[in-house]
Amino acid sequence: MRIDGSNILVTGASSGIGAALAPMLAERGATVGIVARRRERLEAVLAQCREHTPGSQLWAVDLGDVDRAVAVALEAWDAFGHLDALVNNAAIPKRTPVDRLTPSDVDEVMRVNFTSPVHMSLAMLPRMLERDSGTIVNVSSMGGRIGIAHEAAYCASKYALCGWSEVMAIDLYDTGVDVKLVLPGPIATEIWDQPGNDPAFYDGPFVPAEECAADIVAALEGDGFEYFAPPEFPGGMGRQHEMVVGKTTNVDGFVEMMGKLVSGGTP
Known about the structure:
- With 267 residues, the chain is α/β, with parallel strands linked by helices.
- It has one domain (7-238): NAD(P)-binding Rossmann-like Domain (Rossmann fold, 3-Layer(aba) Sandwich).
- It is built from eight helices and nine strands.
- The strands form two sheets. It has a seven-stranded parallel beta sheet, with helices on both faces. A two-stranded antiparallel ribbon has the order 8-9.
- A hairpin with a 4-residue loop joins strand 8 and strand 9 (238-239).
- The longest helix has 29 residues, at 103-131.
């Protein structure tokens, strides 16, 4: 898609990847709608966007309220006349071993990370199909392709978003609506340090949020479906795509290795 002159709605825009992405899109000429819970932080991001596109707007909404999330998507469409792209970036962590998870824990993570973006996309889809134009970007995670210890709820939501995105892209293949899947690796955001979560096993190095945001811009402008952000895992560990492929060729070995590592044994 052409970013200059477009209207783009970005969720999770009060910090991290979304807060880096929205001004980047505005600088490229997009009128941006930004969505997140924290109004004060959104206002700071909106000020950056309006330096380039004065028509940019914000919606302070908890995306755990799925009905309100859908309403915001429709409000943004009407406010801008149409949306050229929806970037489903908002997500919450849940680093809790599975034996301590509660059903309500899982439901909360699934609502924010999976159900809300799916419902927002479905609300947009008839309008995009009528225009025969539009792009939906779903920001999943490497945790949507590779299991992460103590993050069963988070990985479930991100795996679900990957599967949804793949089939959505297949079903819409011969239409004017494009679907993009972005898989961030270890990005330097607040998701690593949230209350109510166990410490992460991974402690760096991390990739700046701006670098991931630039990869999302590349996904919007590119022809492909799946984008790893960044392509190379930091610290010289290799390409993220190759890490996923390696895991899928020997899932039993991966589970055994990770299980031993978490339990304090020898991988």
